[in-house]
Amino acid sequence: MIQLENLTHTYSSEQGKNVAVDNISLEIHKGEHLAILGQNGCGKSTLAKHLNALLLPTAGRVIVEGMDTKDESKLWQIRQTVGMVFQNPDNQLVATTVEEDCAFGVENLGLEPKLIRQRVDEALATVGMSEFKEKAPHLLSGGQKQRVAIAGIIAMRPQYIVFDEPTAMLDPHGRSEVIQTMQKLNKEENITIINITHFMEEAVLADRVVVMDKGKIAFMGTPKEVFRQVERLKALHLDVPVVTELAQAIGAETGIDGDILTIEELVVSLCR
Amino acid sequence: MLRDVTIGQYLPGNSLLHRLDPRSKINGVLFFMISLFVINNMVGYWLMVISAVGMILLSRIPLKYFLKGIKPLLLIIILTVILQALMTPGEIIWQWKFLHVTKEGLIQALFMGTRLVLLVSITSLLTLTTTPIVLTEGIEKMLNPFKVIGVPAHELAMMMTIALRFIPTLIEETDKIMKAQAARGADFESGNLIKRVNALIPILVPLFLSALKRAEDLATAMEARGYHGGEGRTRLKELHFAGKDYGAFGMAVILLLAAIATRVLF
Ligand SMILES: Nc1ncnc2c1ncn2[C@@H]1O[C@H](COP(=O)(O)OP(=O)(O)OP(=O)(O)O)[C@@H](O)[C@H]1O
Ligand SMILES: [Mg+2]
Predict the structure, then answer these.
(1) Over the stretch B120-131, which tens digit does the pLDDT of each residue have?
(2) Average per-residue pLDDT in chain A?
(3) CATH of the domain at A194
(4) Measured between alpha carbons, how far is A261 from A258 in angstroms, rounded to an integer?
(5) Is a pLDDT exceeding 60 seen at residue B141?
(6) Structural domains counted in chain A
(7) Closest Cα to residue A212, out of A52, A79, A53, A46?
(8) Nearest one of B106, B114, B139 to B51, comparing CA atoms
(9) Are A86 and B227 a contacting pair at CB < 8 A?
């Protein structure tokens, strides 16, 4: 479990103080798939960086599996427990070949070369990138690069992976590659997923959706509970999934309810 | 067009030279270079030429790759050769106004040309048979003993790796920015030097800014993956010295001794 207790983060600069995360309390449970929504600059990335001690709270606490992120002696253990995948696929790959890059994090753990080899091969197989292991990262597509980044994280055997807009710079094909990988990790490897996204279609896949606004949690709930509140979302400049919007628009005439999140659900209720 | 630039000209293969530990190869190149500067007569040059040709044959790399390595330096080599021929005093065999070529000059020019060509070929041999990453690792390992006097071996190697990783990315980006600027009517080809340098500014500024952003992102990503310097870090592929590496070391020593012998004996 990751516990955020009254987490506050204030950036100080010459221009003054900027409260990016404002007194947030939240529990992230093991095995869940959590999505975080919110408009630009509402503090999502700042929050994310607290989950593996890239940033430390200016007030409040973050407890990862019982370890306080402020405890320096636990730093490397925390970073191994919570992995992070970032937005720009180019800027998180370090080495000149896929397998060397995938090994980077495990090498930092100081494992035996034999064990590193085993973990790298496993991780690349999990994300379906084994056949590219000798390739240079710059020759891969965006989705492939992102999968290599994911492999580099899972080779470290984390319990949580934070994705900070991992699909924002990808084309639709790359996006679905990454989402499928994410789902697979959650369902098959039982890794807790925290996905920060601007795509409502991705949020629909989560167990729980947190909507942030100006550094605070505006509201949260299951995808159905959240996307039912169209007015509130629109007020925060957020969309609802296209399918949901369609269902609500034709709801009055067809008599179907507004609780529809996927095309399948829409088809089923229209045929009823 | 910029995309064609390749960094490190590694040519995959499975020859003995490909399989040698990078440290043996770096060491071999160093010994070869020292020998090149030790020799001073025809016998010595024959020794070096024959051993270089031997190694090239051993690597099974087609000759054209070495010629490709020499091509960019051709002008410098030719210039050096001509200067040597004209500047060395001695028995004059050709004269025109104040220019004269001497017999000694011709010999010196031939020697100097051979020396440069061998120098370039042997370094090409190193980079053709070794991947940049392995080369970097070799350099790191060789610098390790100098850590005690403050040489940051791991950090240097890490910087080289990152540079190798990002050069192609930045080249692609430059290409993109140039095309975007060209589409808006920027002209990089005509005008005087000042005009052309001016045209480059709209490329360099965004490129520089983006490189800074990349560096910041990369630092965060490396930290997130538990990077904390070279201390306590292990590697996927550990280098290890095998029998053939001791053999290579012995051969390098023998070459140097032979080079010294040619100088003393002939
Ligand atoms: N390093 C920093 N120094 C100062 N202020 C920062 C820094 N990083 C972010 N901020 C500010 O903190 C606020 C929250 O930023 P953050 O990056 O967490 O938002 P976000 O929700 O991730 O936005 P986006 O959707 O654009 O990624 C913004 O007002 C931003 O300008
Ligand atoms: Mg962000």
Answers:
(1) 999 999 989 998
(2) 92
(3) 3.40.50.300
(4) 9
(5) yes
(6) 1
(7) A46
(8) B114
(9) no
Closest-CA distance, A148 to chain B, in angstroms, reads 13
Which residues are paired to B257 by β-bridges?
none
Pick the residue whose CA is nearest to atom 7 on ligand 1.
Answer: A11
Given a cut of 60, whether residue B7 has pLDDT beyond it is: no
Decide whether any atom of ligand 1 lies within 6 Å of the A15 Cβ. no
Query: Atom 6 (ligand 1): residue with closest C-alpha?
Result: A11
Alpha carbons B168 and A235: distance in angstroms, whole number: 44
Question: Which of B8, B27, B261 lies closest to B133, judged by CA?
Answer: B8
> What digits encode the pLDDT tens for the residues B212-248?
999 999 999 999 999 998 888 999 988 888 899 999 9
Considering only the beta carbons, identify the residue of B168, B220, B226 that sits closest to A109.
B226
Q: Which residues surround ligand 2, an ion (CB under 5 A)?
A: A 45
Give the start-to-end residue ranges of the domains of chain B. 2-133+242-265
Is residue A201 one of the residues assigned to a domain? yes
In a domain, A57, yes or no: yes
* ipTM confidence: 0.89
Q: pTM for the whole thing? A: 0.84
Give the domain extent around A83. Answer: 2-93+141-222
Q: In angstroms, rounded to a whole number, what is the distance separating the alpha carbons of residues B173 and B100?
A: 52
* Residue A67 DSSP class: E
Closest ligand by atom to A215 CA: 1
